[in-house]
């Protein structure tokens, strides 16, 4: 038995797949169990920045442009 799939049917199935993926991703992101993970991940861009250290050079530097 050969089933002919029209372009409209393929597009419709693609839409359903993308919608299911969107709903699944949305539920995964807004799951309360993941809040601590995302809170830690939110700070990752700042992890490589050095901590502000007060040194003699910084205290005597002029602030004039």
TrEMBL record:
The chain crosses the membrane at residues 12-30. Keywords: Membrane, Transmembrane, Transmembrane helix. This is CcoQ/FixQ family Cbb3-type cytochrome c oxidase assembly chaperone. It comes from Pseudomonas fluorescens. The lineage of its organism: Bacteria, Pseudomonadati, Pseudomonadota, Gammaproteobacteria, Pseudomonadales.
